[in-house]
Design a protein that fits this description.
There is one protein chain. By secondary structure, this protein is mainly beta. The protein has two helices and twelve strands, in the order H-E-E-E-E-E-E-E-H-E-E-E-E-E. About 15% of the residues lie in helices and about 45% in strands. A seven-stranded mixed sheet has the order 1-11-10-4-5-9-8, with no helix packed on it. Strands 6-7-3-2-12 form a five-stranded mixed sheet, with no helix packed on it. The longest helix has 18 residues. It is globular, with a radius of gyration of 20 Å.
Length: about 160
């Protein structure tokens, strides 16, 4: 009887430990996110669409952001300095049905890598994201909540070029 009890307790602890994410989210960071938005975009060519995430950040000295987890995808963060703040941008290209089936690494519009992950490591709401960054050689993860959704941008189709 004791053996059965021990086995049940051991399996219960093991199953709980297996469900825990290996990524520890930071509660505080040295940088500040002033504003975060996400915006769907649709290109003028069928199958050309995606989502652009923009984060306006201050106090980034010593911080090296490299990727953003958002809506079951991960993309490389592009850093763009502006007047007061720093702008972190990640572009997530939506896949066509064929790309989704292949599950390959795809190039997004601005040549940042976007990869759909079947075993996404975070449980996030639609307006939440996780930043992966390094500071003093250590890797950290920070969850952002309350991203504001902007209206979809519809880009016109390109005119055929005359030869």
């Amino acid at each position: 009887m004791k053996n059965r009890y021990f086995i049940v307790v051991f399996l219960g602890v093991l199953s709980i430990a297996a469900c825990k994410t290996p990524y520890k989210l930071q509660q505080k960071t040295s940088f500040r996110i002033i504003k975060g938005t996400y915006q769907d975009w649709v290109g003028g060519v069928p199958g050309n669409s995606g989502t652009l995430v923009q984060l306006f950040v201050t106090d980034t000295l010593g911080i090296h952001s490299d990727s953003l987890f958002f809506q079951d995808k991960v993309a490389v963060i592009d850093i763009k300095p502006s007047n007061k703040d720093v702008l972190w941008v990640a572009n997530f290209r939506k896949e066509t049905p064929n790309e989704n089936r292949l599950g390959k690494l795809k190039q997004s519009v601005d040549d940042t890598d976007s990869l759909e992950k079947p075993d996404f490591p975070f449980k996030l709401l639609e307006n939440e994201a996780v930043i992966r960054y390094t500071k003093e050689g250590k890797v950290y993860y920070y969850k952002i909540t309350g991203l504001l959704q902007k209206e979809t941008i519809f880009y016109p189709a390109a005119r055929p070029q005359k030869e």
